[in-house]
Write a structure and sequence with these properties.
Blueprint (H helix, E strand, L loop, with lengths): L2 H14 L4 H16 L9 H10 L14 H11 L4 H8 L4 H7 L3 H7 L6 H11 L10 H12 L4 H24 L8
Helix pairs in contact: 1-3, 2-3, 2-8, 3-5, 3-8, 4-5, 6-7, 8-10, 9-10
The structure holds fe (ii) ion (FE2).
The site of fe (ii) ion has 5 residues, from helix 2.
């Protein structure tokens, strides 16, 4: 495995495995799924996709909490660690984070600090994350969104974010499937 991916895996493991074992199970499964759907992105971008998948939730680590918004906190830490800027920005914006940032009144901060990439890689990262459940199980996207809504409850800002983001997330999964020429792996 290429060094970029190895380094990303090690960084994620260090920050999540012991502190947040459930989150770590999710992250391992998201990285594995990114590997399975990597054909949806250009060859030269595959390592970036898989490295970003390893690191996408690193900002949940108790060591890294700053604003309390995990995407932004993760992106900031990766930049401080001098990880590839593109990976830091993909993590900062992963899975429609800009919409959650608006709910948190951090939209301008996120946009000022990190460019938002609209690409096959960003779509595949969103797709890997949003079709993988909290324990690493495969989920249909809409099932996953329902699971998040019920985990956070109707009044939580994450629930408001998920409702706003649903059309974008559906579109990202559909675009990824059309680039793959097949469905994203789903539960058996
Ligand atoms: Fe995630």
């Amino acid at each position: 495995m290429a060094q970029l991916v190895d380094t990303a895996q090690q960084m994620a493991r260090t920050k999540l495995e012991a502190a947040l074992p459930r989150r770590w199970r999710h992250v391992q499964a998201v990285a594995a799924k990114a590997g399975r759907i990597a054909a949806a992105v250009p060859g030269e971008d595959r390592e970036i996709l898989i490295a970003a998948a390893w690191l996408h939730d690193v900002g949940y680590s108790p060591d890294l909490v700053d604003t309390g918004f995990h995407s932004l906190d993760g992106g900031r830490w990766l930049r401080r660690e001098r990880v590839d800027e593109r990976i830091a920005a993909l993590v900062a914006h992963h899975s429609c984070a800009w919409l959650e940032a608006e709910e948190r009144r951090l939209g301008d901060v996120l946009a000022a600090e990190f460019p938002r990439e609209e690409s096959a890689v960003a779509d595949a990262l969103c797709c890997s994350d949003m079709t993988t459940g909290p324990d690493g199980q495969d989920f249909e996207l809409l099932e996953r969104l329902a699971e998040i809504r019920s985990r956070y409850g109707p009044d939580h800002l994450v629930t408001r974010f998920i409702i706003k983001a649903e059309p974008e997330m559906v579109a990202a999964v559909r675009r990824t499937e059309s680039r793959l020429g097949s469905r994203v792996p789903q539960p058996m």
